[in-house]
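Reading a protein record of the kind used here takes little practice once its layout is understood. The fold follows as a row of integers, each naming the local backbone shape at the matching residue. With these conventions in mind, the following record can be read line by line:

_____
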Amino acid sequence: MAEQLVELNVTGMHCNNCAMSIHKLLEKKGLKDIMVDFAGEEVKFSGGSPDDLPVIIKDIEGLGFKVVDDPALQVTPFYDKIENKFLFSAILTAPLLLHMVLPWHFLHNPVVQMLICLPVFILGCVHFGKSAFNSIKAGIPNMDVLIFVG
């Protein structure tokens, strides 16, 4: 009897180390023919029983990724989109750069500068910290660990 090939759509992978952490998890579970594509957000494997699938999905989600049934129907919240995080950060960072060129003297105040950069700092800590923590927990530190420590 041929082994069943399981295909999962996994969101939240953004680098090769993310894919490696899922691959390593599936190898530990004794699965075969593992293929993880972070760009296509696909995970394929064979082996294991159909009863193990909910446990495997729970373990993948425990790494900080999300397994979705149909990626076409998935709606990403506004605050989770990386483009919106970038735009938010760029808008708050622009005055800190422009005060060097334009005569906005209130921006030379260190307290004002700190209040402007604090939301960007917190957003970066949350974004990179979540990924860094999950990668360390999985045993495969990724680039987000270096960014978070820096």
